[in-house]
Structures are given as C-alpha cells and as structure tokens.
Amino acid sequence: MKSKDKLNFTCADCGTGSCSKGDGHFPEFCLTTQLTEEEIADIVELYNKNEEVRKLAIAGAEVEGGFYGKYTRVEEIMEFARRIDARKIGIATCSGLLNESRIFARILKVHGFEVFGVACKVAAIPKTEIHIGSEYIRRDGEPLCNPVLQAKLLNRNETELNVVVGLCVGHDSLFYKYSQAPVTTLVTKDRLTGHNPVAALYTAQSYYTRLLDGNWQ
After folding, report:
1. How far apart are CA 85 and CA 73, in angstroms?
2. At residue 3, does pLDDT exceed 80?
3. pLDDT band, very low/low/confident/very high, at 22 (cuts 50, 70, 90)
4. C-beta of residue 67 within 8 angstroms of C-beta of residue 76
5. Closest of 114, 115, 112 to residue 101, by C-alpha
6. Strands annotated E in the chain
7. pLDDT tens figures, 71-100
8. CA distance linking residue 188 with residue 51, whole number of Å
9. HEC string of 46-84?
10. Domain residues of the chain, as ranges?
C-alpha cells in the first residue's frame, strides 16, 4: 500500500490505540500526528478558558476517573449532574419507553433532583401534517415523533441537563440540535437487541453477518 493511501485512513481504521496509551508510537496515518502545535494549543485554550466547556470537561473526567466500572449509567448521570450543578433534569423520552422514564424520574427525585419529562408524541400532530409518505404511517392519524418540540419545551422550562431515553435515530439528532442545555443519553433505542445496539457489532461475524454484506438491505 502506498504511503499516500494510508493518509486516507482515520481512527476507525486504527488498531494500535497509541493515543490512549500515551506511548508516542503513532501509525503513519494517525490524526494526532497531522495536527499542528497551534491547533492543539487552540483546543487546550478552549478547555481552559471557555467556562461551560471547562465545567463539562472536568465533570466528565471526574466521573470517568472516579467511577468507571463502579457506577451504572443512571448513577453516572446523577453524579455528572451534581458536578455541573444541574438540579433540574429534563427527560426526552420515546413514548414507547415511558415506563423506563418513570422509573428513572423516580430515582432522580429520590436523590433530590427536579424532573421535567416530555414524550416524543407531544402535541399529537399527525404525520400527514409534515407530508410523511403513507407507506411509513401504520395507522390513520398516527402522531409524528416531535423531538424539536421536546427540546423547546425543555428549553422553556429551563432544564439544566437533558437526558435522552430511547429517541429514534434521526429524532435524537434533532433533539441534540435544538436542546439549549447539555445532553447525555441514558437509552439508545434498538428493539432487536433489547436496546443494546453494540450487540450487533459483537455478533457481526456470527448472527449479524448480514451487516458486513454490502447488500444487507
């Protein structure tokens, strides 16, 4: 393989993990080695001088360093919220995971947090109102998922940290885009794997070999 071809590789092609090890042995195509000292300095300055970025970065590092492998994701979210002084937690939930969100809300309240939850079908706007094709509508009057309104309602209620519970692919993207508060994710929806999407990666060479087939659809 020519050297210039290797430069088209990214971290997704790397098997060394040298940036995590800190051993300085980077592959030829490593993105780290392609950064200038000025670019790195700019990033360090952002972490140090932007108050919001610094708060989130430090809190995230403290939760990772102090509780990795010790806390569940639920506990990590609460610990992170405490460290960024977020007392009012927004929950952007899939309507199909309302039970899970109710349990999560109860846990948050037990630990002193205020909770404001919004389900994805809020406003009950029919899918036909935004001209979604009939082949993607399962019943007459089926409401559309409404992540933009979810975000706007949480913004209006001045939540300080928002948590996604099972929003669909794409709908979560819109929620992240419109949320004013920082966002983290508790549940990533995947009905086939019990909301454990990494299972498809672990079994890509066995049960889910079709995912590696260029004609998987």
Report:
1. 18
2. no
3. confident
4. yes
5. 115
6. 88-93, 114-119, 161-165, 183-187
7. 999 999 999 999 999 999 999 999 999 999
8. 29
9. HHHHCHHHHHHHHHHHHHHHHHCCCCCHHHHHHHHHHHC
10. 28-70, 86-212
SS3 content of the chain, % helix, strand, coil (to 5): 50, 10, 40
Name the residue among 102, 168, 176 with its Cα closest to residue 136: 168
Find out whether 165 and 103 touch, Cβ atoms under 8 Å: no
For Cα atoms 18, 20, 21, give the angle at the middle one, nearest 5 degrees. 60
Alpha-carbon distances of 66 from 58, 63, 79, rounded to whole Å:
12, 5, 10
Query: 86-212: which CATH architecture?
Result: 3-Layer(aba) Sandwich (3.40)
**Percentage, residues of the chain above pLDDT 70:** 95
For the chain, what is the largest distance between any 2 Cα atoms, rounded to a whole number of angstroms? Answer: 60
103 and 77 Cβ atoms separated by less than 8 Å: no
Q: Is the pLDDT of residue 202 over 80?
A: yes
